[in-house]
Amino acid sequence: MSPVNEHESWMARALELAARGRGRVEPNPPVGAVVVRDGQLLGEGWHQRFGAPHAEVNAIAAAGNCQGATLYVTLSPCTGLNKKTPPCAEAVIRAGFRSVVIGAEDPTQESALPKLRAAGLEVTEGIQRDRCLRMIAPFLKLKQRGMPFVIAKWAMTSDGRIATATGDSRWVSSEEARLLAHQWRNEVDAVLVGLKTALKDDPELTCRLPEGRNPLRIVLDSHARLPLTSRLVQTIEQAPLMVACLDTAPAAAVAALTAVGCQVLRLPEKHGRPSAEALLRALGQESLTNLMIEGGGEVLAGFIEQGLVDEVRVFIAPKLVGGRLALSPIAGEGIAKMADALVLRETDWRQVGPDMLLTGLLRK
């Protein structure tokens, strides 16, 4: 295997490890690391949870003797002291590596590369750089823009419907697709729906995986009308619930929700609804790193029309329902000319059970 291909292969493994930290390390970035000597794996590690040792430290501990070895790490080692862990660059230097291969540099901190090279390590950078940066996109957005990374997710039939003309939607997607959606809930900090979806579907929005982590559940509810009998409220001891309403919402309704344990966030009005941008900035101030929107159509349209969605995840089921009144996933005014349609970039297609999953980016 050529050195370039070997670098690519080991970095791909480091990326697989990094992904295991999603949903546990935020607001830190997910990072993976692999220790290799003479083509043999000595140890590997990833950042497992916020406040715990970073990927490099875990990989070094797993490898034991790192003299003359190569460290592959998806993100450049941290250089500064913080409140939780000492700088990883120092640990890498002390471990006795011959070389370090880095996927991408962390643009939010001082570069570790000069320090590593000054210590005599051979440093290679930019291996699978785009994939490594994509791994930390939510972290970068929070650091650079003060807002969480926004994922728009929905399931639809092959003719673009999320429900029949009667409003029935159970189930558009397959069991395999729904299981993957629960894994996504396990990985994000918050999920959001509009009041109409909360009233119609009466969802819990919890993660059903055996050892899953429940995200913060958010209902965009202008006048704080979410019923106290809803399953969202009734499951508040299992998972936190926020109602994002207008700052003019009735005080009595707000007080009733607060009394049963809801977080109520009052927001300014924009286009007749609570400001989506103000909501994202408020979540960013609380260090929430990623948000998944699960409906409905007006909510998705509002976020997309304002350029606030970063990524789209769409399950497309091999089903047809037809009907002039059947619902489509994105409502709003829509785009008048096909030439002006929003185009997903860095798209990926894969099969999940009988369904196809399309993912792509709306923002770089």
Features:
single chain, 364 residues, alpha/beta, nine-stranded mixed beta sheet, five-stranded mixed beta sheet, 12 helices, 29% helix, globular
| Binned strand content | 15-25%
Rounded mean pLDDT score? 94
Strand order in space, largest sheet: 10-9-8-7-13-6-14-16-15
In terms of structural class, how would the helical and strand content be classed?
Answer: alpha/beta
Order of helices and strands: HEEHEHEHEHHEHEHEHEHEEEHEHEEE
Number of helices: 12
Let me know the number of strands: 16
Report on the biggest sheet.
9 strands, mixed
Stretches with pLDDT under 50, minimum 5 residues:
none
Distance between the termini: 33 Å
Query: Any idea what the radius of gyration is?
Result: 23 Å
Helix content: 25-40%
State the shape.
Answer: globular
What can you tell me about this protein's structure?
With 364 residues, the chain is of the alpha/beta class. It contains 12 helices and 16 strands. It has helices at 3-19, 55-63, 88-94, 113-118, 129-135, 137-145, 175-187, 195-201, 231-234, 251-259, 276-285, 297-305, and strands at residues 32-37, 40-46, 70-75, 99-104, 122-125, 149-157, 190-194, 216-220, 241-246, 263-267, 269-270, 273-274, 290-293, 311-317, 345-352, 355-361. The strands form 3 sheets. Strands 10-9-8-7-13-6-14-16-15 form a 9-stranded mixed sheet. A 5-stranded mixed sheet has the order 2-1-3-4-5, with helices on both faces. The protein has a two-stranded antiparallel sheet with strand order 11-12.
